[in-house]
């Protein structure tokens, strides 16, 4: 079941985010933020539940505060380790795309480490395309990392 993310979901969402951080393949972040910081930076949050437990989440954050980019957002999708490979990420991303279009978002973008093949495959399977690679864009644990820039243009909002 996919539903809107609520503050009461934060402990599970944080735990799943921390699992992603621990892989070294999901984010430049090295620790999860507080609920207040996370909530202030994200909108359109969704969670996937199985058996009453949160097993994944997706959310978007604004690309820019400039009015010209009002319909552009960056998205994130995280799935609990025990739920990976079961379609949870695909269900979350598809729901986030639909929700985003209803909110007037015409472009969703994602930055993914090239080594995170599961995430690259997920995004390509949900209509994203690789726009390019941002070489040595940031450091994680003292090492330069590349990031693939992927985007999905809405076919509903023109």
Domain module tally:
1
Q: Return the CATH class.
A: Alpha Beta
Taking Cα atoms only, what radius of gyration do you get, to the nearest Å? Answer: 15 Å
Terminus-to-terminus distance:
30 Å
Order of helices and strands: EHHEEEHEHEE
Helix content: 25-40%
Classify the beta-strand content into a percent band.
35-45%
Q: Which architecture name does CATH use?
A: 3-Layer(aba) Sandwich
Largest sheet: 7 strands, mixed
Q: How many H/I helices?
A: 4
Count all strands and give the number: 7
Low-confidence stretches are: none
Average pLDDT figure? 96
Main sheet strand line-up: 1-2-3-4-5-7-6
CATH superfamily: Gcn5-related N-acetyltransferase (GNAT)
**Which outline best applies?**
globular
Assembly state here?
A: single chain
CATH domain topology: Aminopeptidase
Question: Helix- and strand-based class?
Answer: alpha+beta
Summarize the structure in words.
With 158 residues, this protein is α+β, with helices and mostly antiparallel strands. The protein has a single domain, classed as Gcn5-related N-acetyltransferase (GNAT) (Aminopeptidase), CATH 3.40.630.30. It contains four helices and seven strands; from the N terminus they run βααβββαβαββ. It has helices spanning 10-23, 35-41, 88-102, 117-125, and strands at residues 2-4, 43-50, 53-62, 72-79, 107-112, 129-140, 143-153. A seven-stranded mixed beta sheet has the order 1-2-3-4-5-7-6, with helices on both faces. The protein is globular and about 40 Å long. The mean pLDDT is 96.
């Amino acid at each position: 079941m996919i539903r809107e993310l609520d503050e009461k979901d934060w402990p599970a969402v944080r735990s799943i985010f921390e699992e992603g951080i621990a892989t070294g393949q999901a984010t430049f972040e090295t620790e999860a933020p507080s609920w207040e910081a996370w909530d202030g930076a994200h909108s359109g949050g969704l969670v996937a539940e199985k058996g009453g437990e949160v097993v994944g989440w997706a959310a978007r954050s604004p690309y820019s505060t400039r009015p010209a980019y009002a319909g552009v957002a960056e998205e994130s999708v995280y799935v609990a380790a025990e739920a990976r490979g079961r379609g949870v990420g695909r269900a979350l991303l598809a729901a986030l795309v639909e929700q985003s279009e209803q909110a007037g978002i015409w472009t969703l973008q994602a930055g993914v480490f090239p080594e995170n093949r599961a995430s690259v495959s997920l995004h390509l399977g949900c209509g994203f395309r690789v726009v390019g690679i941002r070489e040595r864009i940031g450091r994680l644990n003292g090492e330069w990392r590349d990031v693939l820039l992927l985007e999905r243009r809405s076919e509903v909002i023109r």
